[in-house]
Amino acid sequence: MTKQEQLKQEILDKTKEYYELVHKPQQTQEFVSGTSRVNYAGRVFDEVEMQYLVDSSLDFWLTYGDYSKKFEKELSRYLNVRWTFLVNSGSSANLLAFYSLTSPLLKERQVKRGDEVITVAAGFPTTITPIVQYGAVPVFVDMELTHFNIDTTQLEKALSPKSKAVMIAHTLGNPFNIKAVKAFCDKHNLWLIEDNCDALGSTYEGKPTGTWGDIGTSSFYPPHHMTMGEGGATYTDNPLLQKIMLSMRDWGRDCWCESGVDNTCGKRFGMSFGNLPKGYDHKYVYSHFGFNLKVSDMQAAVGVAQLEKFPSFVEIRKKNFKKLYDGLKDLKELSLVQTQPNSDPSWFGFMMTLTDDAKFTRNELAEYLEKNKIQTRNLFAGNIIRHPLFDTMDLNKDYRVVGELVNTDKIMNDSLWIGLYPGMGNDALEYMIKCVREFIK
């Protein structure tokens, strides 16, 4: 072993020692009812994440590198897809996924300004933000209140000659009716983007969510199914979309050389593009209006370690969901989310909605739980078109609405969810059940 290798190993051994001293006690401390805070989500990690992170920092490559390549390869293998692209957030993943559909390389299927994209108003803003920012028109369809996903019976009503794509999320890990949505998209030649940020690890008819459509997206922000701090990914089996996403993620360039590599194509100074002089350096030819959405290799290093643990995370989430469901299912004041038929969800959260029998408001329940140190969350925006960012938007010009979004408003007013992430022990789950039942009683 060289001096350099020996020194690195000593540093990694010390990193493990530091984890054992500082972080492990926080992750294994005893739960005390009424005193310990029950967060809706959190990081679950051990010394391996820290060692990979330090290992990457010692290489000091910083940008996209070996850990990034390994993560993309391993996530592709897990999802059984051909290509994965690491980006700096789930929101950036949605941005990249949508903007890839605006590429001129798609010809008659290119999404242009004024074209329509079918989606829902109940969810996270950045599922629809790229649509609006580009100048396309979101068309909002209502939700159903059994599985809390898009009401697929409304899809045909949302269709118009301007329809080009469907872009929707799997709500809190529960897959939407993929069979119906996919059949609709195939029938009308529409793109399908699956926002899989809250559903990594879920399956539908045995196939991973995020891989049924043309593009899937994931988020690796700390509350999500796995984390690298900030981070996200897009994935696809479509070779043309693969080419477009690589270009748009990396400044819009035409070149596909990796960072620090030149002349992969062997014709760097021998090609012609647009009105550029013949032989213009291919590394500086741009075929798209792109971005720089890459992560650092240090973030990817954390992701590699998380991905090694990921199957166990999924199983714990399923077990925790069942514990909460069995403990609350008899309460007539609450309607609990039901599993989408033909699916096996990797749950992100536990959704509860007040029934007509409830003699209390959603906020009263939330405030009681929060007072008892249990974090709660609404279903994100609830109804995005009721938020201030839509104040300057013109209905039927900047966006369209199918029907009156009655169920979406019900979710906005009467739904909330609590956590079930892998860091929760049985004591915390039982405490949440106890508090919900006590409040209703």
Mind explaining what this structure looks like?
The chain folds into three domains: 209 residues, Aspartate Aminotransferase, domain 2 (3-Layer(aba) Sandwich); 31 residues, no CATH class; 131 residues, Aspartate Aminotransferase, domain 1 (Alpha-Beta Complex), CATH 3.90.1150.10. The mean pLDDT is 97. The chain is flat, with a radius of gyration of 23 Å. The longest helix is centred in the last third of the chain and has 32 residues. An eight-stranded mixed β-sheet has the order 1-9-8-5-4-2-3-13, with helices on both faces. It starts with a helix and ends with a helix. With 441 residues, it is of the alpha/beta class.
What is the fold's blueprint, element by element?
Blueprint: H1 3-28, H2 47-59, H3 66-79, E1 83-87, H4 90-100, E2 116-120, H5 129-134, E3 137-141, H6 155-158, E4 163-169, H7 178-188, E5 191-195, E6 203-204, E7 207-208, E8 215-219, E9 232-236, H8 239-249, H9 297-328, E10 334-336, E11 343-344, E12 350-354, H10 362-371, E13 400-401, H11 406-414, E14 415-418, H12 426-440
Parallel strand pairs: 2-3, 2-4, 3-13, 4-5, 5-8
Antiparallel strand pairs: 1-9, 6-7, 6-11, 8-9, 10-12, 12-14
Helix pairs in contact: 1-2, 2-9, 3-9, 4-8, 9-12
